[in-house]
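User:
I study polymers; will you set down one protein's sequence and C-alpha cells?

Assistant:
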Amino acid sequence: MTGPRTRRLLRYVAVGLGSVLIDAVVYAILYSTTGNGWVSKPIAYIAGAVFSYFANWRFTFGARRGRFSEVAFVLVYLSSLAVNLLVNQLILGSIEPTWWRAPLAFLVTTGFTTVWNYVGMSRFVFREPVEQVVDEGRVETL
C-alpha cells in the first residue's frame, strides 16, 4: 500500500505527463512552422504550465493552497522557464540540424525542469501548513 506522499508523487507524474504532452504538441507545431526556439518554447511551456497549475491544484495536492499560491506558482514557473529556455537553446545551438535535435532538446529540457517544478510546487505553492497556533480556542494555520 502506498502512503500519501507516494500517491501525491504519482499524481504529480501523471499531471506532468499531461503537461509535457501539451508542451510537446504546441512546441512541435510552433517550431515546425517558425523554426524559432525562442518563440516556440515559451509559448508551449506556458500552455503546459496553465494545465499544470489547475490539474495539480485539484488532483495532486487537493484544494490545499496558501494565500499567495498563485504568486508562488508564477515565481516557480518563471524561474523554471528561464532554465528551460537556456537548456533548450544550449542543446539546439550545440547540435547540427538533424531530425532528432529538437526532440532531444525538448526531452533534456523537460527533465531539468521537472525536478525543480515538483520541489517548487510541493514546498512553495501547495505546501502543507507549517504550524498551527491555538489562540483563544481558535486554530490558525500559519
About this structure: The CA atoms of residues 84 and 111 lie 9 Å apart. The radius of gyration is 18 Å.
